[in-house]
């Protein structure tokens, strides 16, 4: 039967003080089952292993929950060199002290699981590689004691029930803590298909081309060529293409049955970028020689501009 914690009134106060001041769990371990390498060190703080260390299996089991760290470790039972001693256990009265609070280990001498030993000790008749029956010891510690286990700062007292037949003091250290798994079911996963439509937005151009309603040449000269400049205004947005404005290079002015040729220098001009106040230039001209040969009269005519758009 597992022994209860041995806690004095003063120890209770110390434990409550620790619980109020320490809020973080030890290390970064999640709840579950772990194994670790365990050693019993000299009580003098030298960090050297105790002479009793070889009788312990150097592989321990550790189960972590939200509040507790249950440590299970093993000691040879019986001791090969003293098989007639320690009928009620190789060690007894094993007590851990954490923050001035004592925790007594439970002893199991009935199950006697076989474990392999990795250290030779002639005193105890234990050889490296021996597979021996063991006594199982289990102690419930606070969850945050894991840090102290790794640091080797938890003190342990135990009555060694063979050879020494006396209470021995140690520091216990558990390192290389590794998860053994098996405590968490694989996460169930579900797939969610995501679909979305992105509509194609076609940006349609907007443009305005303003051609002068008329061009006045006035009284034509017979001594020098006649010319009258003009501008075509353009406003365009979302163009994303080419806006072309063109006009015929020549045309005729008429007065009754009489004609007079004119030229238009505008040609074809392109707009390829958005603009709010674009200006395209041209000029209407009549040669002096044509004027000299023409009959007198009031001449008028028309030219037609062509506007086209081509998307990129």
Detailed description of the structure:
This protein is mainly β and about 300 residues long. It has two domains: about 10-180, Immunoglobulin-like (Sandwich); about 205-310, Immunoglobulin-like. About 10% of the residues lie in helices and about 45% in strands. It is built from three helices and 18 strands. Strands 1, 2, 3, 4, 5, 6, 7, 8, 9 and 10 form a ten-stranded antiparallel β-sheet that branches. A five-stranded antiparallel β-sheet has the order 11-12-17-15-14. β14 (about 250-255) and β15 form a beta hairpin. The longest helix has 13 residues, at about 10-20. Residues about 1-25 and about 180-185 have low confidence and may be disordered.
What is the compact description of this entry?
The chain is mainly beta. The chain has three helices and 18 strands.
Sequence-ordered SSE layout with sheet pairings:
Layout: H1 9-21, E1 32-42, E2 59-64, E3 68-76, E4 91-98, E5 101-104, E6 106-108, E7 114-116, E8 131-142, H2 146-151, E9 154-160, E10 166-179, E11 206-210, E12 226-237, E13 241-246, E14 250-255, E15 258-264, E16 268-271, E17 275-286, H3 288-293, E18 306-311
Antiparallel strand pairs: 1-2, 1-10, 2-3, 3-8, 4-5, 4-9, 6-8, 7-8, 9-10, 11-12, 12-17, 13-16, 13-18, 14-15, 15-17
């Amino acid at each position: 039967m597992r022994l209860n914690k041995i806690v004095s009134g003063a120890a209770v106060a110390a434990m409550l003080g620790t619980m109020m001041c320490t809020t973080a769990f030890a290390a970064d371990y999640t709840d579950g089952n772990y194994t670790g390498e365990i050693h019993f060190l000299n009580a003098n703080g030298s960090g050297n292993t105790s002479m009793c260390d070889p009788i312990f299996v150097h592989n321990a089991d550790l189960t972590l929950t939200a509040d507790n760290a249950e440590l299970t470790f093993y000691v040879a039972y019986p001791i090969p060199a003293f098989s007639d001693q320690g009928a009620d256990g190789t060690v007894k009265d094993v007590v851990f002290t954490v923050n001035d609070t004592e925790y007594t280990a439970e002893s199991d001498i009935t199950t006697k699981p076989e474990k392999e030993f990795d250290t030779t000790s002639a005193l105890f008749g234990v050889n490296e590689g021996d597979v021996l029956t063991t006594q199982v010891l289990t102690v419930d510690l606070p969850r945050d004691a894991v840090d102290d286990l790794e640091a080797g700062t938890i003190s342990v007292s135990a009555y060694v029930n063979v050879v020494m037949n006396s209470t021995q003091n140690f520091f216990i250290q558990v390192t290389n803590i590794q998860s053994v798994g098996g405590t968490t079911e694989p996460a169930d996963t579900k797939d969610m298909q995501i679909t979305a439509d992105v509509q194609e937005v076609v940006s349609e151009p907007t443009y305005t081309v303003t051609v002068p309603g008329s061009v006045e040449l006035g009284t034509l000269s017979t001594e020098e060529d006649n010319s009258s400049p003009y501008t075509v205004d353009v406003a365009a947005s979302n163009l994303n293409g080419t806006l072309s404005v063109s006009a015929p290079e020549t045309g005729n002015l008429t007065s009754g049955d009489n004609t007079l040729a004119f030229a238009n220098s505008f040609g074809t001009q392109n707009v390829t970028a958005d603009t709010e106040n674009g200006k395209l230039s041209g000029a209407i001209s009549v040669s002096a020689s044509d004027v000299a040969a023409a009959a007198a009269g009031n001449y008028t005519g028309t030219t037609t501009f062509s506007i086209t758009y081509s998307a990129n």
